[in-house]
Design brief:
Structural class: alpha/beta
Shape: globular
Largest sheet: 7 strands, mixed
Oligomer: single chain
Radius of gyration: 20 Å
Helix content: 25-40%
Length: about 375
């Protein structure tokens, strides 16, 4: 018998990081993605301190390479509620960086290839059966371990679920504007534009990303395009822009990151923060955890414990806090806190920047005093 073969479906940050780690240890890895890289990605590209440290500490990317991928570093944030300005604040400490997801993802995937992974671009997984993946190119890939890193509508996740209920998905849509005239300064986050969701205006080096989306229990996609059109006008857009959309994870994250010899990582495991929308750090961490589980032969229990201490635990916390921030009867209180309590606003920034967890924010929210 030869060495065990791992097939990774999806070449984004979760799949590329997992494949890189496995191949770096001499593992036989095949990665397939339906797109050819670099490819467009509907994502604001926010990468907090936690995600940057994970990438550098793992060794997949060097500090100077991350800097070359950085479109902007932000230390200023403005929050709005139904187009009413709440507060603008300048923060100390590590900034939130914006990366170009097209070139950033392509760099990570190239590292997997350099480490020895076989990468098949422009080839889509069309069917997953027991121990085989059939592709759009007519290939049949046999696997001993299967990793689903193929997004919120994961084919691999569907294979695991079988006849059981599939994971619910939200929706995000985004437009890219060229910077011109009086552009917004810092990150702008808009609450109250869509139930159980938010809008964003994130300036990059030569463009501005404007988007809106949601994934909570009360989110409905109806009218999302109309709401984005209004946000675009608020951001200074002077003409109609081409929109892109993508599904967003909803519901509970997959706490065990799969089952048996099938693993899930990143969006496929539901690992996107329900408040900030940040998913790169969770994708990277879950990809590394899955790779270690395969390499070290971890039990599902051990993997679940380690995931709960990191990415799964943080996403689970964000789901709880989302109820406090987005619920119709509680949202006005949260907006008042953002407007009037600088420590609460600082806590929100720390969450987006990946510098804290949600428990302190929840305690301050529930406190009767500012």
């Amino acid at each position: 018998m030869g060495d065990p073969v791992t097939v990774v479906v999806g070449g984004g940050p979760a799949g590329a990081t997992c494949a890189w780690r496995l191949a770096s240890e001499g593992g036989a890895v095949e990665v397939l993605d339906r797109s050819a890289f670099p490819r467009p990605k509907v994502c604001a590209g926010a990468l907090g301190n936690r995600g940057a440290e994970l990438l550098i500490r793992a060794g997949i990317i060097a500090t100077h390479e991350l800097e070359s991928q950085t479109l902007a570093l932000h230390r200023t944030m403005s929050c709005w509620f139904r187009y009413r300005h709440l507060r603008t604040h300048d923060f100390q400490g590590p900034p939130i960086r914006l990366v170009d997801r097209s070139s950033f993802d392509a760099l990570l995937l190239s590292r997997a290839r350099e480490a020895g992974a076989c990468v098949l671009e422009g080839e889509q997984a069309e069917e997953v059966t027991e121990r085989k993946v059939r592709t759009s190119g007519g290939r049949e890939l046999s696997w001993d371990f299967l990793v689903g890193a193929d997004g919120a509508g994961s084919l691999v996740g569907g294979h695991l679920a079988g006849k059981r209920r599939r994971r619910r998905c939200g929706v995000g849509i985004q437009a890219r504007l060229f910077r011109q005239g009086d552009n917004p300064h810092g990150l702008h986050v808009h609450f109250g534009l869509v139930p159980w969701g938010y809008g964003w205006v994130f300036p990059g080096r030569d463009h501005i990303l404007v988007g809106i989306g949601g994934a909570g229990r009360g989110f409905r996609p109806r009218g999302l395009g109309r709401r984005l059109s209004r946000l675009l006008k608020h951001a200074g857009a002077t003409e109609n822009e081409t929109l892109q959309g993508a599904p967003l994870p909803s519901g509970y994250p997959n706490r065990r990151l799969g089952r048996g010899s099938v693993y899930l990582a990143g969006d496929a495991a539901g690992l996107v923060d329900r408040i900030s929308g940040e998913g790169i750090a969770h994708a990277v961490e879950s990809g590394l955890l899955v790779a270690e589980a395969i390499l070290r032969g971890w039990s599902r229990r051990e993997l679940a414990v380690r995931a709960r201490q990191g990415c799964v635990g943080l996403v689970s916390q964000s789901r709880i806090f989302a109820g406090l921030l987005y619920h119709r009867s509680l949202q006005p209180r949260a907006m008042r806190r953002l407007r009037d309590d600088p420590k609460f606003f600082q806590g929100y920034w720390n969450l987006v920047a990946g510098r804290t967890n949600y428990w302190r924010m929840m305690l301050r929210f529930l406190s009767p005093r500012m």
